[in-house]
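== Sequence, C-alpha cells ==
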Amino acid sequence: MVLPDCWAASAVAERVRPLACRVVRHDSGRPWLVGCWPEERATLAEAGGVRLAVLGEHALTVAQLAARADAMRGRAGAENAAENAVSGCAGSFHLLASLDGQVYARGALSAARRLYHGVCEGVSVGADRARTLAWLTGARTDSRQLALRMASLAAPPYPLDSASVFTGVQAVPPEHALRLDRDGTARTSPWWRAPDTTVPFAAGAAGLRQALRDAVAVRVRPGELWGADLSGGMDSTSVCFLAAEAGARLVTVTVDWNAPGHEDLRYAELAAARLPASTTRLTYPSGCLPRYLSGLEQRPDAWDEPRPLRDLAAQEHVTRELRAHGVGCRLSGQGGDQVVVPPVCHLHDMVGRRPLRALSRLVGHRARRRWSRTATARALLDRSPLRRWLSVQADALARLPGTAGAEPDLGWGRSVRLPPWATPQARRTAADLLREAAEHALPLGPTRGLHAWAYQVRQAGRNVAPFAHLLGMPIASPFGDDAVIDACLRVRPHEASSPRRYKPLLVAAMQGVVPETVLRRTTKDGPTTEWHDGMKANRRLLAAWCDDSCLAATGLVTPDGLRRALLGPYTLSARHGPAVEATLTIETWLRDLAHHPRPAYLKEHSCESSSTP
C-alpha cells in the first residue's frame, strides 16, 4: 500500500501493519510504503528528504537510484522528477516517490502492474491490488461493471477497460499516475503520452530488437535457470532465443494441441533444434494435462477482476514440473500480439492521406475477415469522435440483444453487444456506464489508429499477474515492458502491419536471432478443441451452478438464461463462444470471491520496519 504523508494515514497503517512484511517511511517518519515484496525485486534509496522506490524487474542499483534521488532535490513537483529518475530504464516496475510531502506512484502501461486508490479511515490511500482496498473499505462488487464484462471480458471498451469492479475502489488508468497530497486527497495525471509514429520500418525493427534484448537482459543473468514457454508461436520463440543469447539455461514448455492441423509442435521442434544443447525440453500432449476447466469446483483466491483462467489446472501441473527441474521463474511471450501488430483501424486514418494504398490493404483485410463491402464503406465514412462512438454503442447496447457479427474493425473499438442471455437490466446498466464514460472520454492518441494501438497494449499484461499470483511463480513478460511498447508505437503503423504478412515488425526485428523457418510462419493455433471438451466434461457441475448462480443473483442473467448459455448450443458457436466464456468466468469469479471474502494473500507477518529506505 502507498500512504500519503499525513497523520491521518497512520490509522490505516496500524490496521494493515500485522499483514505487512515491511514498512518504509517518509522523510517525516510517517509510514509511506506498507506491504510484502521480494527484497531482490525492490530498490529503495533516499537523498536529502527525497525517497524513491522501484519495485519489480529492472537493473537499477541502490547507488544509481540514490544518485537520481539526489538530483531530484530542490525540484518542484514529484511527477517530472520521479519520471526523470527512471528515464531510459528497461524493465517492468512500479515507480514510487516521496518528495516534499507529495507522493507519486505509477505502474506499467501494459497493465501488468496496476494501481488503485480509495478512501480508508477518511484518507485516500493507494494499493497495487483492488481487493486490498475492497477488503479495507468493505466495498461491494459493481454489477454494472460485471454486466459490461459479459460483452467482452478480454477487453471492455476504453476507457472502462481499466475500471475497478468494486464500488468505491478507483482504478488508476495504466497511462496515469497516482498523486497523494498531504491533505489526504488523491488525484491522477498522465505520465505517458502517445509518441509520434514517424519511425521508418527498418529503424523501428532495430529499435524493437534492442528494446527486447534489454528487456530480457534485465531479468536474465548468465548461467541462471529459467522456465520458458516455447509454444511454437513467434512471440514466445523470440523470448527463448533472446534468453539463450543472454546466457540463461532454459527449461522450455510446449503443449501439443489436440485439433488436427495444428502446427505449434512442429514449429516448436524446429526452434528447439537451434537452442543451446543445455536446454531441457518439456512437451505435453494436451490430452495428458488436466482437462480445460478442471477444478471448477475448487475455490482459489479471486483476482482483482474476472480473468479467463480456463487452463489453470494444466498450468499448475506445468509449474510443479518446472519446480521439480529447479526453476523459480518463468519467461512468457504474453503481450506480443497486442504490442507488435497495430490494429486495422489505422487504415481509417490513412484513407485521407494515401487512399490507394489504404484501399489496397483493406481489400486484403476484408477478404480475410469476411467483411461486407457495404459495412466496410460505412465504417470508412464514419468520422464520429470517440465520445459519439461510445454514445452510439450505449444506444445499441440498450436496444439490441445478441453479440456483434463480423463487423469491420475500423472504429474506436469493437462493437459492444451483450449476449442473448443477458437481462434487460444488464443491458440498461451497461449502457448507462458507457454513457457516463462518453461524457469525459479522451482518446489515447491523436488518431484512431494510435488510440486503438495504445488501447491494445493496455491489455498486454492483464493475464500475467493473475496467473503468477495463483501459480505462486513469478512470470516475466518482456513484451509488456514500457520501453518495448514505446519502440513499437513509434513505427509507422502501415509499415508494421500487412494483411499478407504475419507480424512483419517482429519478423524484421528477430532476423538473425530466431531461425528463419520460424520467422516464415504465417499461422496461429489455439486450444479451441480443449475448451469445448472442458465444457462438455463439466456439464453436470455447470447445470448445478445454474440453480444457485451468483451471477443470476445480481439480476444480470436469469437461471434459465444461464442454463442456455452454459449447456446449450451457444458453447459451440464461434459468434457466441467468447460471451459464453466471459459469462462462465464471471460466475466462477463471484463464487471464488464469496469463498474468500478476505483475500488469502492478506496473512499476518512479522514486520521489518525501517525509518529510511
